[in-house]
């Protein structure tokens, strides 16, 4: 598409930067929620171009990074059951659980498959009637409709050998957990564009009002990000705190009604444990009772002890905006993309991996 | 993994019910089967935003131009100051 290249236009980038230098008079700390945005900011060198008063910190918006060790242990346990085909998005395979990763389990003979879409897993279940197919349903609001649709399609087709291990996380409660922290350092947020494509922008209005922070729904291209930062800083400089939508070409205020319908059909809001952060109330989705035969936790009656991550990993501090990856003593030493200690070093959208890969100055 | 990619709808299969409405979407030449159940109004030739095999929105080319009008506003602003 023509306009995609225009969003990478260096002239546009220059213009936004120029304007940003003009409006910024004081130090501000902004958090981008989404790991895709973190990746784009670091990869395109934008962090080094911003006015020095603007401090970007990197939020918890990478599903790979926030899926708890306990859920990974559940995934590993399921993958090791006889007659189970365990399916996952590729990025989850290298994330360390308390003892090993799904990749280790696969190497040791477990039937672990990487799929592009949960809908493929339903087909796999139809094609393998003597096996139990389980899909690792991780992700934010963006991914929840597809995972929900897989369950609805399985139910409609009478597929009984399909289930999901749900570990969905939700953005607004995480933002509230960060803002409600007495040590909060965040002045403004870039909200994640594609999450809002599904959910719309209205759920951010009460947060902006309560915590008096501007929230700007922002896209992923360099010019998107700079425009989002500019809109946030302009609000901060003026003392306003509204929800604005930089990404109107992809995000409608009311979201996608069909997608939300699919989510509410299959999932209930539940408490969720976030890796590095802890349990945040009402911050996840779990499969509803009406679809309980598609809930792998119930179907396989999983009961495992709760485990914590490696104590050296400071990912929680990073995702709350208190520290940068380079401040982690393990960064680049004990913890590298080939030997990740914590999840943010695994995914390309994790802040630690993005810094490791692209930041020349570290 | 939360990124969604725009692609062009090049074929539509209505399916037995809207739940199974799907189509072929081309991402600069690479074609994938995509569920169109959540974008019931998507038609042949439309650009849809696709995430893990499901179209989650229609890309509005008009709105894409907003970024440029925003820039113009800034230009105006500069002149006024
Ligand atoms: S560098 Fe590794 S150990 Fe340190 S915070 Fe990042 S993922 Fe955790």
Topology:
The complex is a heterodimer of chains A (362) and B (81).
Chain A: H1 2-6, H2 10-23, E1 28-34, H3 35-43, H4 46-49, E2 54-61, H5 63-66, H6 69-79, E3 84-88, H7 102-107, E4 112-114, H8 118-127, E5 132-139, H9 144-156, E6 162-169, H10 171-180, E7 188-192, H11 193-199, H12 205-211, E8 215-218, H13 222-238, E9 243-245, H14 257-266, E10 267-274, E11 278-287, H15 296-299, H16 315-319, H17 351-358
Parallel strand pairs in A: 1-2, 1-7, 3-4, 3-5, 5-6, 7-8, 8-9
Antiparallel strand pairs in A: 6-11, 10-11
Chain B: E1 5-13, E2 22-27, E3 30-35, E4 47-51, E5 54-58, H1 61-64, H2 66-80
Antiparallel strand pairs in B: 1-2, 1-4, 2-3, 4-5
The structure holds iron/sulfur cluster.
Notes on the structure:
The complex is a heterodimer of chains A (362) and B (81). The two termini of chain A are 36 Å apart. In chain A, α8 (118-127) runs parallel beside α9 (144-156). The model of chain A is unreliable at 1-6 (pLDDT under 50). Chain A has 17 helices and eleven strands. Chain A has a six-stranded mixed sheet, with helices on both faces. In chain A, strands 2-1-7-8-9 form a five-stranded parallel sheet. With 362 residues, chain A is an alpha/beta fold. Chain A folds into three domains: 5-56 and 171-245, Rossmann fold (3-Layer(aba) Sandwich); 65-169 and 283-299, Rossmann fold; 315-358, no CATH class. Chain B is an alpha+beta fold and 81 residues long. Chain B has a single domain, classed as SH3 type barrels (Roll). Chain B is built from two helices and five strands. Chain B has a five-stranded antiparallel sheet, with no helix packed on it. The longest helix of chain B is centred in the C-terminal third of the chain and has 15 residues, at 66-80. Chain B is globular, with a radius of gyration of 17 Å. Chain A binds chain B through residues 1, 3-4, 6-7, 12, 15, 19, 34-36, 61-64, 89, 91, 116-120, 139-140, 142-143, 145-146, 149, 152-153, 156, 192, 194-195, 197-198, 220, 223-224, 227, 248-250, 252, 256, 258-259, 262, 347, 349, and chain B through 1-4, 6, 17, 19-20, 32, 35, 37-40, 47, 49, 51-54, 56-57, 59-61, 63-67, 70-71, 74. Iron/sulfur cluster binds at residues 312-315, 318, 325, 328, 330-331, 335, 341-342, 344-345, 352 of chain A. The site of iron/sulfur cluster has 15 residues of chain A, from α16.
């Amino acid at each position: 598409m023509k306009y995609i290249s225009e969003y990478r236009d260096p002239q546009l980038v220059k213009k936004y930067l120029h304007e940003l230098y003009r409006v910024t008079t004081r130090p501000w700390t902004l958090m981008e929620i989404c790991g895709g945005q973190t990746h784009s900011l670091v990869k395109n060198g934008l962090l080094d171009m911003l006015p020095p008063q603007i401090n970007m910190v990197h939020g918890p918006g990478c599903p790979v990074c926030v899926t708890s060790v306990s859920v990974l242990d559940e995934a590993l346990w399921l993958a090791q059951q006889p007659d189970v085909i365990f399916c996952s998005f590729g990025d989850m395979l290298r994330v360390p659980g308390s003892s090993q990763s799904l990749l280790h389990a696969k190497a040791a003979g477990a039937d672990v498959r990487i799929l592009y879409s949960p809908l493929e897993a339903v087909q796999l279940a139809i094609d393998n009637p003597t096996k139990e197919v389980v899909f690792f349903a991780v992700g934010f609001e963006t991914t929840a409709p597809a995972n929900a649709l897989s369950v609805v399609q399985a139910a409609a087709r009478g597929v009984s050998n399909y289930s999901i291990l749900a570990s969905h996380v939700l953005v607004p409660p995480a933002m509230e957990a960060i803002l409600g922290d007495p040590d909060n350092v965040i002045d403004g947020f870039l909200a994640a564009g594609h999450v809002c494509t599904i959910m719309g922008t209205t759920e951010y209005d009460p947060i902006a009002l309560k915590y008096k922070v501007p929230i700007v729904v922002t896209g992923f291209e360099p010019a998107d990000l700079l425009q989002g930062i500019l809109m946030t800083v302009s609000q901060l400089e003026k003392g306003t705190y509204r929800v604005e939508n930089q990404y109107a070409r992809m995000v409608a205020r009311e979201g996608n009604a069909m997608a939300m319908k699919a989510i509410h059909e299959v999932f209930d809001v539940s408490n969720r444990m976030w890796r590095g952060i802890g349990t945040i109330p009402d911050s996840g989705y779990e499969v509803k009772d009406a679809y309980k035969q598609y809930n792998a936790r119930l179907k396989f009656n999983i009961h495992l002890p709760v485990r914590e991550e490696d104590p050296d990993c400071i990912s929680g501090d990073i995702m709350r905006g208190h520290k940068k990856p380079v401040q982690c003593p393990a960064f680049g030493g004990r913890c590298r993309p080939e030997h990740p200690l914590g999840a943010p070093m695994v995914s390309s959208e994790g802040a630690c991996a993005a810094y490791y890969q692209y930041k020349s100055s570290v | 993994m939360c990124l969604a990619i725009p692609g062009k709808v090049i074929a539509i299969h209505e399916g037995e019910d809207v739940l199974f409405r799907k189509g072929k979407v081309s991402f600069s030449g690479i074609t994938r089967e995509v569920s169109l159940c959540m974008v019931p109004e998507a038609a042949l030739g439309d650009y849809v935003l696709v995430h893990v095999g499901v179209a989650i929105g229609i890309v509005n080319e008009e709105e894409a131009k907003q970024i440029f009008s925003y820039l113009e506003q800034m230009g105006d602003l500069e002149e006024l100051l």
